[in-house]
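tool=predict chain=A
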Amino acid sequence: MLNAKPIKTAMLLLIIELIIAWFFTDFFIRGFLGDVLVIPLLYYGFTAFFKNNDKLLSEKILLLAFLIEFLQQSSITEVVSSYSKIGAIIFGKTFDVWDLVAYVFGYLVIKKNN
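tool=predict ok
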């Protein structure tokens, strides 16, 4: 059974992320705030569809985001991106230390609200 509160939160965050992607190009909103919001989006998305008995879920999501960001330094993301537009969106193309900072802020938002 779906949990209504996290699904509503995840949907709201997804809509905000899409608005950011379509209408903003500046560093702070698109490049930073969008990355901050992706961590809570993933967290609430997971908790909406799965029972959240995992006390370390937010940490696992943060580690996943860090892993993907560090993979951007290798050719793996280029290969994935060349085969799939969705893969290109998920994996991105360039490593940026500011993305890691943004992910930590997103993680702190989750921790503050739980």
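The chain has a mean pLDDT of 87. Residues 4-113 form one domain.
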